[in-house]
Each structure stands twice: as structure tokens, then as C-alpha cells.
Write a structure and sequence with these properties.
This protein has 558 residues and is α/β, with parallel strands linked by helices. It has two domains: 32-289, no CATH class; 318-549, Alpha-Beta Barrel (TIM Barrel). It is 34% helix and 18% strand. It is built from 19 helices and 22 strands. The strands form six sheets. Strands 11, 12, 13, 20, 21 and 22 form a six-stranded parallel β-sheet that branches. Helix 1 packs across helix 15 (389-406) and helix 6 runs parallel beside helix 8. The chain is globular, with a radius of gyration of 24 Å.
Length: 558
């Protein structure tokens, strides 16, 4: 009953804008609409994100984007063709086609400043010699309605009659990051939005890509790039203090600093505080996307290949299903070969809050071979073994409501806290598996892992299957085929259910060609069919993580 009530509220907000569940996104963002026929502006970025090159102007534009988009979607940034996220262009066309948004292109950062300077009260100067000063400047920009500039851009903003609000040059010279962010914390934390924090890590140093800063500025977040790594105890202690100060149900936006820690370390730490991770640091236009609802009459509908209550009988063969579990829009979705084979795609479910129109684009452009699943582990990216016990059920209730709204009958789980990348133990203990089965009675099954894992179960015709293989995009296709043929030979009992995780940068065409090298009898099936078949013939062993097998790479085990 509680889940139904929550879903009604969530649908009300996302489609009609008349109700408000208690999440920071719904409480802080202005009222959303479809914005049919709205006027907006766009600027094309190039590939130069060097601190001594194109970054200063881009940072100025991004900060101004956050200010201009606080109340209405006005400024959209297009990225270069080689940008990691491939969706800015398709989404731009989608807004034009489905929302009739009338874009006017702006050619230069100076022209952006001239058009939107009325949204700024001043400017703050950051120091290119101290890269972390840019994050401090972004924090100030959100609090003081400022644009961020380097010294070279001061004449431009003063020509626009903006006043200097702060100058960070020299303030942090020679200081370590922990000193810089401690000073920023002492100065600004109390005034910042405590429902979210911006972990603006990723690339740091000579090249920085703070494309997600717009939503941080718009929502007055505290920006930082501290390590979650025992090698840096002072930084980690300050990071813990910041995360402990984020409100219940809060979010950590952005991504970890590549030079100081790992994804596994930081997601372990954020999960320990019950906080949801929404990445990456270079995801653009979130301040624009979050202001749109779906178009009138639209309903999220998945591409099911089998009914939820169907019972399928497998034959004596190898059944293979492919899943791409990194965020949609990073790479393969825009491939012209998408749709040539059954493929499952992990949906970032919290985009139903932050980018509902973007999700509509994915749903409407899906082919019959594209099957969508929920993940990762929770409403957003979390490691379940480290979620506080009192937070697990509410978080999964939130995830369940999103899955119902988005028509996602499968949940993908990933806990890499005892692994390192795609190497290590990604298995789940029985008590965590028990909690998932209890929390999601309506799913048709669960997918687990990233690299190969061993957790498997079957309850009430709902299987939990872990990946048996991970396709590295750099591994030659002949070698991939040889690996999979070896797995087929090592698992002679039929049917054999071979679940394959596909890294997002793999070529779809190369996978189609690789399949022809597999030794049969082999059948490639959609994931919902795969799970239904696995529910009918339990030729796999029930298996969970054993405590003595766990080795924590992160140092943040419970």
C-alpha cells in the first residue's frame, strides 16, 4: 500500500506537477512543465578542456548556465563529436522534434554572457595554478549568483558591468586539497544546499571537464574533490564530515577524483552514509534537462518479449543474454547497429526525477531488441552491503516506485566494494539477497555483478543470475569468442544460462560478428526471456558470498 501511494505521488510530479514526494529534487527545483514551444539558446563547445586552453571560457559559460536555468530551461550546451556522452546532440534534436523547443545558436562565450548577464550579480576569480580553486569558485557562484572567471576574463565580465564578488588568486597557493576544502567548508558549507553535494572529481590537473557543474551552481551545492582513500586520511576524514552533513535521502552528484581514489572506494563510502550517487562529473545540461516533464500523454513502456506471468520451457542448449550496464547515452546507444541483436540496457532510474524527458528519448528510440532494466542496486548507484540497515527498506521502496513508473521488471545489483573495477568479488551474502527478494516481490528476476560473479538463486519463479563473462572493449573479438566457447565447454549441463556484461564502448557490430563464432547449440535471447527460461530449469547452483572470501579493496568495510 505504501508503494502504491508513493508511486501515485511520483507520477503526479513527473507528469502533471501536482504532488511532491519528499526528495530534495522535488522540494528544491521550480515547478516543471513540458515547455512545449519554449524558446531556448544553445552554444557548441569544442574538445579543448585544458586549464591553459579552453577551460576558463567553458567554466564561465557552465556557471552562467546554472544561473540562467534556475527558473526556466534557457541555455543548452552542445558537445564535440568525441565527447564521452553522446546524447547532447540527439537530445537537442529530440527537444526540437517532440517539444518544439525553438533553439537559437550562440557562437561565443562572450555572447552568452551578454545575453544572460542579468542572471548574475557578479563574478568570482579562480586561480588556474590551483585547480581546486575552480571548485571553490563554483560553490561561491551558486551562493552569490556569480560567474566564474580567470584573470584573463575579468575585462569581459566588467564590460558586462558585473562586480567582483571574490578573488581566489593567491588564497590557496601552496596548500593541499584538504586545506583548501577545509577553508571552503568553514566559509560556505552552512549556506549550501544540504540535500546534495557536488563531488567534482574526474580528471584533475592540466585537463578538467566540470560539465556537471551547472546543476551544482543552480542548486547551490558545495563543490569538492576529496579522496575516499585510506592513503589520504585527512582528506577522507573531511569527506566523511561532509557526507555526514548531507540530509537523509540526499545525493552525491559528480564523480570521484581519478588521481586519488577509485570508484569502488568512493561508492562504498557514500553508500555507508545512505547517500545516492549520480554521476558522472562530465554529464552535461542537467540544469536544463531537470526542468522538463514528459510530453502530454506519454507513458514509459518497455519493449517486453514475454509476458510477466509467462512460463517458458528451455531446450538442451546454451542461452546467452547481453547486458550493457553503464549509463545510457555514454556510447553504444547512438550506434547505427543498435537493434541488430537482443540487448538489455541499465536505466539510471533517478533520471525519472532529474531528466524525465531524456528518459522519454531513450524509450521512444528503443528498438524491439532493446530491453530496459533498473539499476544500479537502488534508486541510484549504491553498494547494498554498505547501506545502513535502517535505510535499506526505504531506499528500495523508492526504487520500486521508480521501476513501476518506468516499466522495469528486472533490477540489476552491483556491489564492488570487495572488488577493483571488473576484477574481484562482486558476490552478495544471503542476507542481502533475502532483502532484495523481500523488497521487490513484483520483479521477474535480478541480475548481479559487473565482472563475473557467482551469486545465484531462484525463489517463486524469480531467478537471480550473475554475470559469467565481461566483454572488455579492448579484447579482440576472436579472443572473446574463444573465452565464451571455453565457458560453454566447462558448463556441459544443458540448458546453460550464460549472462554476459558488455562494456558500453564495445561495438555492437563486432558483437554481432562474434556470435557467429560460438559453438552451439546457442541461442541469443532477450533478458526477460532469458530469466523466464532460467526460472523453468534450475541447472545452476544456489550460491552466495561467503564471509571468509571477502577482501575489501576500499578499506571501508563495515
Amino acid at each position: 500500500m505504501k508503494r502504491t501511494s508513493y508511486l501515485v505521488a511520483l507520477v503526479g510530479v513527473l507528469v502533471w506537477g501536482v504532488a511532491a514526494p519528499r526528495t530534495w529534487a522535488e522540494l528544491k527545483l521550480p515547478a516543471r512543465a513540458a515547455h512545449i514551444g519554449a524558446a531556448a539558446w544553445s552554444i557548441q563547445f569544442d574538445s579543448d578542456w585544458r586549464v591553459v586552453g579552453g577551460l576558463p571560457e567553458k567554466a564561465m559559460v557552465i556557471s552562467l548556465q546554472g544561473l540562467a536555468n534556475r527558473l526556466a530551461p534557457q541555455l543548452y550546451i552542445m558537445q564535440a563529436p568525441d565527447y564521452q556522452w553522446e546524447i547532447p546532440g540527439p537530445l537537442y534534436e529530440f527537444y526540437q522534434r517532440r517539444y518544439q523547443v525553438r533553439f537559437t545558436e550562440i557562437k561565443t562565450g562572450a555572447a552568452v554572457l551578454e545575453l544572460f548577464k542579468g542572471h548574475a550579480k557578479g563574478y568570482v576569480v579562480w586561480d588556474p595554478q590551483v585547480s581546486s580553486s575552480l571548485n571553490v569558485a563554483f560553490t561561491i557562484a551558486g551562493l552569490e549568483d556569480a560567474v566564474v572567471v580567470t584573470a584573463d576574463l575579468i575585462p569581459l565580465v566588467e564590460k558586462a558591468r558585473l562586480k567582483q564578488i571574490d578573488d581566489l588568486r593567491g588564497r590557496y597557493t601552496g596548500q593541499a586539497d584538504v586545506q583548501i576544502y577545509q577553508d571552503a567548508y568553514d566559509r560556505y558549507w552552512a549556506r549550501c544546499n544540504h540535500d546534495a553535494v557536488m563531488l567534482m572529481g574526474g580528471q584533475m590537473g592540466a585537463v578538467m571537464v566540470p560539465a556537471m557543474a551547472d546543476i551544482g551552481v543552480a542548486q547551490r551545492m558545495f563543490f569538492e574533490a576529496l579522496a575516499a582513500n585510506p592513503k589520504y586520511p585527512e582528506e577522507t576524514a573531511l569527506e566523511r564530515r561532509i557526507l555526514a552533513g548531507v540530509n537523509r535521502d540526499g545525493y552525491v552528484f559528480g564523480w570521484h577524483p581519478y588521481s586519488k581514489d577509485t570508484e569502488e572506494q568512493h561508492v562504498t563510502l557514500t553508500s555507508t552514509y545512505g547517500l545516492k550517487m549520480e554521476g558522472l562529473y562530465n554529464l552535461p545540461n542537467l540544469s536544463f534537462n531537470c526542468l522538463f516533464t514528459v510530453t502530454p500523454g506519454f507513458k514509459y513502456a518497455n519493449r517486453h518479449s514475454v509476458a510477466r506471468d509467462a512460463q517458458l520451457t528451455p531446450g538442451p542448449k546454451v542461452y546467452i543474454s547481453f547486458v550493457q550496464s553503464d549509463q545510457m547515452g555514454l556510447s553504444a546507444w547512438t550506434s547505427p547497429d543498435r537493434g541488430k541483436m537482443p540487448f538489455a540496457w541499465q536505466v539510471p532510474m533517478d533520471w525519472s526525477l532529474f531528466s524525465p524527458a531524456a528518459l522519454q528519448y531513450f524509450y521512444e528510440s528503443a528498438t524491439p531488441n532493446d530491453y530496459l532494466i533498473g539499476g544500479l542496486s537502488a534508486p541510484s548507484y549504491m553498494y547494498p552491503k554498505h547501506i545502513p540497515a535502517d535505510r535499506f527498506a526505504p531506499l528500495m521502496q523508492e526504487a520500486g516506485a521508480m521501476m513501476q513508473l518506468l516499466d522495469l521488471p528486472v533490477l540489476e545489483i552491483l556491489d564492488n566494494s570487495a572488488a577493483d573495477g571488473n576484477v574481484g568479488n562482486a558476490d552478495l551474502p544471503k542476507d542481502i539477497v533475502d532483502r532484495y527478494y523481500e523488497a521487490f516481490p513484483d520483479v521477474i528476476g535480478f541480475v548481479n555483478g559487473y565482472g563475473p560473479a557467482h551469486t545465484r538463486d531462484l525463489r517463486d519463479s524469480r531467478p537471480m543470475i550473475s554475470y559469467d563473462y565481461y566483454i572488455d572493449p579492448n579484447r579482440p573479438r576472436d579472443a572473446v569468442a574463444a573465452d565464451m566457447n571455453e565457458l560453454i565447454a566447462l558448463n556441459p549441463r544443458r540448458p546453460y544460462f550464460l549472462l554476459v556484461h558488455v562494456r558500453e564502448t564495445n561495438s555492437v557490430a563486432s558483437l554481432v560478428a562474434m556470435i557467429t563464432q560460438l559453438r552451439g547449440p546457442v541461442e541469443i535471447v532477450p533478458l526477460d526471456v532469458f530469466l523466464k527460461l532460467a526460472a523453468s530449469a534450475k541447472t545452476y547452483q544456489t550460491c552466495f558470498e561467503y564471509p571468509d572470501e571477502v577482501k575489501h579493496f576500499s578499506g571501508f568495510g563495515k
